[in-house]
Amino acid sequence: MDLKNEFISLASHELKTPLTSLSLQLQILEKNVKKKNEKILNFDSLERLSKISLTQINQINHLIEDMLEVSKIGEGKISYQMSNTSLNEVIENATEIVAGHFIDVNIPLSIEGIDNLRLLADQRRLVQVLVNLLINALKYGNGSPVTIKISTNNATGMVKIEVADKGLGISKENQQKIFERFVQINTHGKNAGLGLGLYLSKEVISAHSGIIYVESEINKGSKFIIELPLIH
Question: How many other CB atoms are there within 10 angstroms of residue 165's CB atom?
Fold first, then answer.
């Protein structure tokens, strides 16, 4: 199977799952509305249905965004709006986006070593990278706390951003593969999606003259590390 057909097959499969779930929820709603089933159509049930439906819609949107981004990269059309950017703002924006997910499952998210650091960066795209790493840490962290740690290296002029959990971990043989396009690592039955998130993250970080890599051990957690040049 060539790359294009592989992509279409994979995308179709991944989109079908949330669409099937969303369709089922709406069928249940339609059935009970027709029956005027007030026992089911109470505020608690409608709130639960709305939450499930919105989750599935968000998943579909995320998959579509990833597909569009990888298409732009393949065509050389991806663009960056570089500006003097506050790392504080990048981290604050990313943590605000994921805060609800962490609160829902009662998992702590902490930040260490934040400082008044500045980068030449596309803020929106860096936020996307951090959000991806944080959601992955939540997904594969096995309920463990997640930490963002910031440190600087005066000798190299780089900032190091670490996103760490103490969860399932990644085997040595898979630690390089996870940054490749369409690679799915089925860890303890967890769904890896399209296998584009980390590939896109690597492309974004490379465009910022930085590097991204992982340090991990099975059942001891993972630490995703980004190194980026600072503005002095």
Answer: 27
Q: Which residue has the tokens 């492309």?
A: 203
Q: Are 126 and 201 in contact (CB under 8 A)?
A: no
Architecture field, domain 83-229? 2-Layer Sandwich (3.30)
The answer to whether residues 162 and 225 touch, using CB atoms and an 8 Å cutoff, is: yes
Contacts of 164 (CB under 8 A, 6+ apart): 137, 146, 147, 149, 221, 222, 223, 224
Tell me if 98 sits within 8 A of 134, measured CB to CB: yes
169 phi and psi, to 5 degrees? 80, 170
Amino acid at 196: L
Q: d(Cα 203, Cα 19) in Å, to the nearest integer?
A: 29
Rounded to 10 degrees, the C-alpha dihedral 81/230/212/167 comes to -110
**Structure-token pair, residue 162:** 């670490």
**Class assignment of domain 3-74?**
mainly alpha
The pTM is what? Answer: 0.71
Mean pLDDT, consecutive 10-residue segments, the chain of 232 residues?
54 64 76 78 77 74 68 64 93 87 89 89 89 89 94 91 93 85 56 65 91 93 95 82
Q: Domain residues of the chain, as ranges?
A: 3-74, 83-229
Cβ–Cβ under 8 Å, residues 196 and 72? no
